[in-house]
Amino acid sequence: MALPENSCRIEYLYRRKNILLHGCTSLFLYAPVTESTMDTAVLAASIHPGTVLSVRSSCQLKGRGRMPQRRWDSADGLNLLTTYVIPRIRDDIPLQLIPLLVGTSAAAAVKALGITAEVTVKWPNDLLVNEKKICGVLCEMRREGLFAGVGLNMNQTEFPEGGTRERTSAALETGTVQSIEEMEISVLDAVLKNLENRHWKRDLEDML
After folding, report:
1. For residues 56 and 180, what is the distance between their CA atoms, to the nearest angstrom?
2. Fewer CB near the last or first residue (10 Å), C or N of the chain?
3. How many separate helices (H) and strands (E) can be counted in the chain?
């Protein structure tokens, strides 16, 4: 399938200073349609080296899951589909725990919406609300830093049958339409806070 003409366009949405990461500027980018936000983030990181990035799209043609044969399917424009790029990671954080750290960060942002149901992180990369999947995380370490892909069901209320687990969304759990842009910022804020948190291991254990 050929990419639509606007799929390679990376638009500047806004810049935002984030004091939690040594005063670095967090740059939010948007590609209306892309094969995957992870691939687009790799390109963006080469253009903006050393910058905290969020590369979001409304439509992924080939969204990737943790396993090569799995894809992240999402209704166009209804969910948060983004990849965060974090150039610097503390040396005392084991790489195998990074997906859990990102997952707990997303969980904190989801809970902040007022969801009262149990929110848990399932090893290695799923976020569940009452055992229903609401979010998937895909992390890769590259020369440019941590690439954390997040697919979070926000305003989708109907899901195709199949898959290994029933799915839900923020809208289904809260009964209201949620802001994808605000959630994009909230998750990044939570990730940066956890990366700066010296008690991250204890907090991870509380979420598992």
Report:
1. 10
2. N
3. 5, 8
